[in-house]
Amino acid sequence: MRLFGSLGGGLLDLLLPPRCHICKTVLNSPGPLHICATCYAALPVIRSPLCSICGIPFDGGGDDHPCGSCLASPPPYRAARAALRYEGACRELLHAFKYQQRSHLRRPLGLLTAELLTPFATACQPDLLIPVPLHKRRLQKRGFNQAVLLAELLSRQWHVPLLRQGLARTRLTTPQVELDRAQRRTNLRGAFAVPCPAAVSGKRIMLVDDVFTTGSTLAESARTLLAAGCTTVTAVTVAHAP
Questions:
Q1: What is the pLDDT of residues 10-55, one digit of tens each?
Q2: Helix, strand, or coil here: 45?
Q3: Apex CA 118: angle with CA 117 and CA 119, to 5°?
């Protein structure tokens, strides 16, 4: 059976050779990411200096430190980190993943996030991973929750239990990117609930989402979890928008 499997895999590679997810170049050794060395080197990886709270990257040199926004209005989560800047190839992959039904892209995106954010996850020592939920109407339209797919992979890579329904979306809200700053503050109020508070009580929770855009979604999610009795909330995303 292994022989037949190897022959079948070889035939498939001849008919449909593996290609880089970004530049579409045929790959001789695709590896788990299916991203060529050139495209991998060009990925917009977030590195220090960055905000030690929300994780937004700073230009130039220096050490990590809180940004002005976090100092003026500290978020309820302890810290958030993203693996990549939401630009270039990262933006294209995430857009295809979410809006073009290319759910297989959760693998390279999730593996990149796991690789780049392992030091942060190790330092946080979360007891549970919880994906940011979609409202059921938006879930039906898209067919999947991208945060759940990413969290499943991170759970396996980091050996941290996943609580898929740790949070629930109680009402449909306008996407944050469509609102101004004042509207964002109120748009998500009361939009989340914890179905089983006992499951999160006394736990260190790490939220998982695809993109950190305004931070309001993570903040409201964290506020809801803390009210349910968890001890701390941190967050990871694939990307951080400007």
A1: 454 555 789 999 999 999 888 999 999 999 999 999 999 999 999 9
A2: strand
A3: 90
* Separation between Cα atoms, residue 218 and residue 208, nearest integer Å: 9
Domains recognised in the chain with CATH numbers: 1-42 (no CATH), 43-240 (3.40.50.2020)
Residue pair 173/15 in contact by the 8 Å Cβ criterion? no
Greatest Cα pair distance, the chain, in angstroms, is 63
Given a contact cutoff of 8 angstroms between Cβ atoms, the answer to whether 222 and 74 are in contact is no
The pTM (predicted TM-score) of the whole model is 0.90
65-117 pLDDT, tens digit each: 999 999 999 999 999 999 999 999 999 999 999 999 899 999 999 999 999 99
Query: Tokens 């950190």 belong to which residue?
Result: 212
For the record, the structure tokens of 240 come out as 């951080």
